């Protein structure tokens, strides 16, 4: 296999590896594809990711094969352009660019204008007839190469430039003349020599290999590692290197550089969207050095901005660009994120990729593109990341709420966020770990800030456009972001934030509206999201293709209503213990627990019966006609015990017992390891009257609702923590007997099921026997994970991070099911249960019911439904559909 692939300049690639992202990376494969469909791509070549992996594993050595392949590929560029690298009269300049399999924004730096030295810069000045351009290019090259390859602090160069401008009284880089740049080049070279003890490399071949090595090495840089960890990117992928002939956007007013999206990445609207700068190069647009200008006339007018849009200033190049947009969307059948340069009026394409987008935009684009016939419904379903829906389901700012607007920046990533002001990423992470909601406020962000951006509810930057680092990363993470709020100044010494004439300090609260760019003091009220429109359409499509049903975990009528709006098709888990904690009830519960006789317990339970009945009635009213799994009391009784003297005194009043007696009784109920103690069905076995009361409340409520509405709910009475068939046999008899009694009293009957949770390994193993008594199984994967791994969920935070960091767990097993281990028990129990009772209903009710990877597993092993918390119901619907496709 060759180590290098050529693109552009008439290169023909028959080898499919040339367009395989795993081999040539995202950037390289797309450059090859663009060239093949006839777009203007400067010629270049791509060194494969395999070479990067070999280089890093092999002690940073280039193979002979690579050296000779690169030499040949360089000739391809030289022939295509008609210039050669290092030619003193007419030098070829190249860029050296990284490009991994997936785009890693800002992770690896590009070196531009490589091939310049003290001699070639003169040649470039002569052939271009533009001294200023030549020296500008050279100073850019020295700075970039020194920063990226030689690791000289880039601050030194920025400082030198600032001083040079100040001396001249200039404000913009564009005011610098040829001589100014030339003088700066001397200074830059002096800086390098001083920092490194040797001169800036003049040998162009040395420059090239240095840059290639730097790209390879950057794969293992700290910031790349952080990004990989946050995005689950394996270290073994490596990055490709692209070497490409330079085109110049800095050749005067007929040249420009820009970035563009074929649709609006924030809203999804079908409108070209982008930013550009005249007489600029490379990353000037995203670096925030000059304020970029609008691409289209419409966008400029909408923003009320003066500087001409590209559409107005360079109509011919713009028209060509618009054609390219259309071509690329048709070719890739997706929204494209494009980088381009105009050299002396001629358009060049430097990059395209599927653009990152907000959840809202992903949804709109998927539905729109299906409407346009660009993709089909199934593809549309697959285009939206289920977890991203989370952003859409959460509240936005109430338009009627008062807003104390401090300033308005750019609406870089939508959504509303309130939190405490934090000025650096480390602190943001610390405070968020401590449970605080924070807003990260920075002048601008860089890859070093990613962990803090992740930890923050929202991000505010003083500088940077819509395509700045902060904006791109925030959109990718789904964090609301306001960027380029130029009225904001940050003083890191006093840790204060000045916005206009208002001063805030770290610790004050701030609200951001990423949809409008508004920055507000304090916390602003929010409203519920819109379920109709594109969201509704996509959900409808998802429902068409999914096999599994989706239920919700809910125990209040409000949650049930919300879940139904989100499309829940029943309750998968109604935890009854939450109902016991209500202020008005807890003393009756305590009375029941502390009673010393069955009669004592029955007296207390009699007080609870009407309360439970009305709880269930309200829930059944909302869920009429739908199955509702209600779990009988599960937690260890000790959780309900009174704490502190006041509570004991209160209880003494209610029960007539004295405090000492109650305390002694509470002491008797103390458990060493309650999680494995007197809980679950063990309560029902020892105190049958508790489950009897709950069963009665369920059936009475169900009969009431059936009579009132004519449509009965379908209660599924679930017995928790069963390990043996016999436990369920005893409790099922009790539930059936209670049902019979209630139906006789009420003169009506309803359908119901009795089943169990599978949450102990033994229950999974004995599922064939247990299924003789159970009409349904619900996998309680929270406890099943705890009991299978022998890990307490509530204590796992102390060691989980090192465990996931070292790859012991791939992901937190309480968030995403341990498919390999716990999954076996689920699969086996499902099989054994079905062997005994082919129509047994199978579902999952742990947290995992809202996790897409776990949902896919549930689908594969044939569960009938998953159950998730209300906000996760749409996520589960979409994930279930994706799994079916
Ligand atoms: P990133 O992966 O960070 O986007 P790129 O490799 O795309 O880095 O390079 C950044 C920018 O450098 C590009 O957007 C483009 O403006 C400029 N650039 C890269 N290669 C060339 C080239 N051959 N000619 C002109 N500009 C280039
Ligand atoms: Mg970059
Ligand atoms: Mg790029």
From TrEMBL:
Residue ranges constituting the PEP-utilising enzyme C-terminal domain according to the UniProt record: 532-883
Pfam families noted in UniProt: PEP-utilizers, PEP-utilizers_C, PPDK_N
Keyword Ribosomal protein attributed: no
Matching InterPro entries: ATP_grasp_subdomain_1 (IPR013815), PEP-util_enz_mobile_dom (IPR008279), PEP_util_AS (IPR018274), PEP_util_C (IPR000121), Phosphohistidine_dom_sf (IPR036637), PPDK_AMP/ATP-bd (IPR002192), Pyruvate_phosphate_dikinase (IPR010121), Pyrv/PenolPyrv_kinase-like_dom (IPR015813)
Catalytic machinery residues: 469 (tele-phosphohistidine intermediate), 845 (proton donor)
Ligand binding (Mg(2+)): 759, 783
Residue span(s) of domain PEP-utilising enzyme mobile: 436-517
Keywords: ATP-binding, Kinase, Magnesium, Metal-binding, Nucleotide-binding, Pyruvate, Transferase
Cofactor: Mg(2+)
Function in brief: Catalyzes the reversible phosphorylation of pyruvate and phosphate.
Stored NCBIfam families: PRK05878.1, pyru_phos_dikin
Family: Belongs to the PEP-utilizing enzyme family.
PANTHER family assigned to the protein according to its UniProt record, in alphabetical order: PHOSPHOENOLPYRUVATE DIKINASE-RELATED, PYRUVATE, PHOSPHATE DIKINASE 1, CHLOROPLASTIC
Protein name: Pyruvate, phosphate dikinase
Biological classification of the source: Bacteria, Pseudomonadati, Pseudomonadota, Alphaproteobacteria, Sphingomonadales
């Amino acid at each position: 296999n060759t180590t290098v692939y050529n693109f552009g300049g008439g290169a023909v690639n028959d080898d499919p590896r040339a367009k395989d992202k795993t081999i040539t990376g995202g950037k390289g494969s797309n450059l090859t594809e663009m060239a093949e469909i006839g777009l203007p791509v400067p010629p270049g070549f791509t060194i494969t990711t395999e070479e990067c992996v070999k280089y890093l594993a092999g002690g940073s050595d280039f193979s002979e094969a690579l050296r000779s392949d690169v030499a040949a590929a360089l000739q391809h560029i030289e022939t295509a352009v008609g210039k050669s690298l290092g030619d003193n009269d007419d030098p070829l300049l190249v860029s050296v660019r990284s490009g991994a399999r997936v785009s890693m924004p800002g992770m690896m730096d590009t070196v531009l204008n490589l091939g310049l030295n003290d001699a070639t810069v003169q040649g470039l000045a002569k052939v271009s007839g533009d001294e200023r351009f030549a020296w500008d290019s050279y100073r850019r090259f020295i700075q970039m190469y020194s920063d990226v390859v030689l690791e000289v602090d880039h601050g030194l160069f920025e400082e030198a430039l600032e001083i040079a401008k100040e001396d001249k009284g200039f404000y913009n880089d564009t005011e610098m003349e040829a001589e100014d740049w030339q003088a700066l080049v001397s200074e830059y070279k002096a800086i390098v020599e001083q920092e490194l003890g040797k001169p800036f490399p003049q040998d162009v071949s040395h420059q090239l290999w240095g840059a290639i090595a730097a790209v390879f090495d950057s794969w293992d840089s700290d910031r790349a590692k952080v990004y990989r960890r946050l995005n689950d990117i394996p270290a073994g992928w490596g990055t490709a290197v692209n070497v490409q002939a330079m085109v110049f956007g800095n050749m005067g007013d007929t040249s420009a550089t820009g970035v563009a999206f074929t649709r609006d990445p924030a809203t999804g609207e079908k409108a070209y969207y982008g930013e550009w700068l005249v007489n600029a190069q490379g990353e000037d647009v995203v670096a925030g050095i000059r304020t970029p200008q609008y691409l289209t006339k419409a966008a400029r007018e909408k923003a009320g901005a003066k500087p001409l849009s590209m559409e107005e200033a360079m109509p011919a190049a713009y028209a060509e660009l618009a054609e390219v947009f259309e071509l690329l969307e048709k070719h890739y059948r997706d929204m494209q994120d494009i980088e381009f340069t105009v050299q002396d009026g001629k358009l060049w394409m430097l990059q395209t990729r599927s653009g990152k987008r907000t959840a809202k935009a992903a949804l709109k684009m998927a539905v729109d593109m299906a409407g346009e016939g660009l993709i089909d419904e199934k593809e549309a379903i697959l285009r939206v990341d289920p977890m991203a829906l989370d952003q859409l389901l959460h509240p936005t700012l109430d338009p009627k709420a008062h807003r104390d607007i401090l300033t308005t920046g750019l609406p870089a990533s939508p959504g509303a966020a309130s939190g405490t002001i934090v000025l650096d990423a480390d602190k943001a992470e610390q405070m968020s770990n401590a449970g605080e909601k924070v807003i990260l406020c920075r002048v601008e962000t860089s890859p070093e800030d990613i962990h803090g951006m992740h930890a923050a509810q929202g991000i505010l930057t003083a500088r940077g456009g819509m395509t700045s680092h902060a904006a791109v990363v925030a959109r990718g993470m789904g964090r609301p972001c306001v960027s380029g709020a130029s009225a904001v100044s940050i003083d890191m010494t006093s840790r204060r934030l000045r916005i206009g004439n208002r001063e805030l300090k770290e610790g004050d609260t701030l609200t951001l509206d990423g949809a409008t760019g508004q920055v507000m003091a304090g916390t602003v009220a929010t409203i519920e999201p819109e379920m109709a429109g594109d969201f509704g359409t996509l959900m409808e499509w998802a429902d068409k293709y999914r096999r599994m049903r989706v239920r919700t975990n809910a125990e209040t009528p409000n949650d049930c209503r919300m879940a139904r709006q989100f499309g829940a098709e029943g309750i998968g888990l109604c935890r009854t213990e939450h109902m016991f904690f209500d202020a008005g009830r807890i003393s009756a519960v305590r009375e029941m627990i502390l009673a010393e006789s069955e009669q004592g317990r029955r007296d207390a339970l009699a007080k609870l019966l009407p309360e439970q009945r009305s709880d269930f009635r309200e829930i059944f009213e909302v869920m009429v006609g739908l199955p509702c799994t209600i779990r009988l009391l599960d937690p260890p009784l000790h959780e309900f015990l009174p704490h502190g003297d006041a509570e004991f005194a209160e209880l003494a009043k209610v029960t007539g017992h004295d405090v000492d007696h109650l305390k002694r009784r509470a002491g008797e109920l103390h458990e060493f390891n309650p999680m494995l103690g007197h809980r679950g069905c063990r309560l029902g076995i020892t105190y049958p009257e508790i489950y009897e009361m709950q069963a009665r409340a369920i059936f009475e409520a169900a009969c009431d609702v059936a009579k009132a509405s004519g449509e009965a709910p379908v209660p599924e009475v679930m017995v928790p923590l069963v390990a043996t068939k016999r436990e369920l046999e005893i409790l099922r008899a009790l539930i059936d007997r209670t049902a019979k009694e209630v139906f006789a009293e009420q003169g009506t009957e309803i359908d119901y099921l009795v089943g169990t949770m599978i949450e102990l390994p033994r229950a999974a193993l004995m599922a064939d026997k247990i299924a003789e008594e159970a009409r349904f199984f619900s996998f309680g994967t929270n406890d099943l994970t705890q009991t299978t791994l022998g890990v307490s969920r509530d204590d796992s935070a102390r060691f989980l991070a090192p465990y996931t960091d070292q790859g012991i767990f791939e992901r937190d097993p309480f968030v995403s099911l341990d498919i390999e281990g716990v999954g076996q028990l689920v699969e086996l129990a499902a099989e054994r249960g079905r062997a005994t009772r082919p129509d047994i209903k199978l579902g999952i009710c742990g947290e995992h019911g809202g996790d897409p990877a776990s949902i896919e597993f549930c689908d594969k092993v044939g569960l009938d439904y998953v159950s998730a918390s209300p906000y996760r119901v749409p996520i589960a619907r979409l994930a279930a559909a994706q799994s079916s496709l």
